[in-house]
User: Fold this.
Amino acid sequence: MRKLALLVLTALCIACDKNEEDITSDTYEVTIAGTSTDCKLILIDFKESDLQRIEKITNSNGLRYEAYNLDKQNFSTKGQVLTVRLRKTLDSEIFACTTLGIGYPWVTILEAELK
Assistant:
C-alpha cells in the first residue's frame, strides 16, 4: 500500500510540472503578413531587432510566425501594425494543418491592439 501511495504521488508531481506562471510572455510590435494557406491562421512578422527576444520564447529562429488566438475579424488586413502580448504556444493548443503550404512556427496571442 505504501508503494502504491508513493507511486501515485510521484505521478502527480511529474504530471503537474507546468505552471501557467512559468510561461513567459512579452510585448512586441508586429506587422500582419496575411493568412497562412496551411493552417488558416494570421501570419505576423516581427522586427529584426526582436529576433533574439522571440527566439528565447519560441526556441525558433525566424521572424514570421502563425498567430494562434489572434482575432481574424479585427486583425487580418495585410500591413496592419499591432502591439501584441504573446507566449509560446502550448502543445495542447496546436491542431493539425493541411500541409499544403509553408509551415511556420506558432505563437499564442494573449492581447492585441492596433498601433
User: Anything to note?
Assistant: The two ends are 61 Å apart (CA to CA). The CA atoms of residues 94 and 106 lie 8 Å apart. The helical segments are 2-15, 51-58.
